[in-house]
Amino acid sequence: MKKYVTLGEVCTKGSSNIAQKDIEQNNGSYGIYGASGYIKDVDFYHQDKPYIAVVKDGAGIGRTMLLPEKTSVIGTMQYLIPSDMVCVEYLYYAVTYMNLAKYFSGATIPHIYFKDYQKEKLPLLTIDEQRKISDNLRKIDRLIELCSGILQKLDVLVKSRFVEMFGEPISNPMGWECCELGDCLESIDNGKSYVCDNDCRTGDNPAILKLSAVTYGIYRPDENKAMIDEDLFDESAEVKDNDLLFTRKNTPELVGMSAYVFSTPQKLMMPDLIFRLNAKSSCNKIYLWQLINHDLFRPCIQNIANGSAKSMSNISKERLSKLTIPVPPLALQKKFAAFVEQTDKSKFIAKKIAESVRSVKIL
Predict the structure, then answer these.
(1) What are phi and psi for residue 29, nearest 5 degrees?
(2) Residue 360's pLDDT is what?
(3) Are residues 42 and 112 in the same domain?
(4) Is 176 helix (H, G, I), strand (E, B) or coil?
(5) Number of domains observed in the structure of the chain
(6) 3-state secondary structure of 32
(7) pTM above 0.85, yes or no
(8) What is the dihedral of CA 53, 59, 61, 64, to 10 degrees?
């Protein structure tokens, strides 16, 4: 039977009073870290052995880092220094799995305190067993990193292929016919606005998508809110396979992002912050999706949005319909769409590998 010990029994806490402004003029050869990672090199260090750093204040509380010897952290973080009972890497993985953020307190600036989370338990194994587990978890982390790198490279590949086939979309060097987006659409459908639960749905009960289901250009059906009154479910606003969704309202940087729905669970509705773009047969939805989201075309999207830089921006149906877009021959659009679909299958495999690896329980 495994023996369990509390976090407080196998490590001690260390504090830092260093503010980032205090090191602006300090330079050296020893790394100093903050909540977002490495900041710079300074001429001092606080820890002479490897340790775990935990974000204790502000955004990202509970996030952990495994940091090398002869480094330091700023005051929004704290040190966890392992005793001789545990190796530092094993302790790092154990603390990472503990979800320390659940111990937060404070409404304006959240905090977590060692006195609260030190009661968390972890299995106390022999040092050799700890090292073996750490080695396995390090390999898992590496595999997840490789999958993430593949996903990023596939996204870059699609964007590059777009420019290769169609040219820069604003200057239109290939001289494609241009027209207003409204001429390429049968209609633009509205979503619905209902009072919803804060939590996502269970099973296939009716729900409404959150804006975040589309915000980043990839359809995320798990980003939803359960409907309080399920009788209000409206099939006219239900998301279907092959839909093209468009965020009509968001921050100035993210407004007007779109997501193509390769497939979707049933009984998910669009919110009123999202449009559905119903393309005519002369215009391919996947081509439109990639055009709308392409970095080189984003200025055109942002130019049709209303709202100040400090508020939510909004794009009306009228302004969206008048957006001028290049329209290459349909056969070329379809060729590009086939490439995107094949790429998406590769992304799906990489995501599934990463998900299956994350689900492995070793500790």
Answers:
(1) -130, 15
(2) 64
(3) yes
(4) coil
(5) 2
(6) strand
(7) no
(8) -40
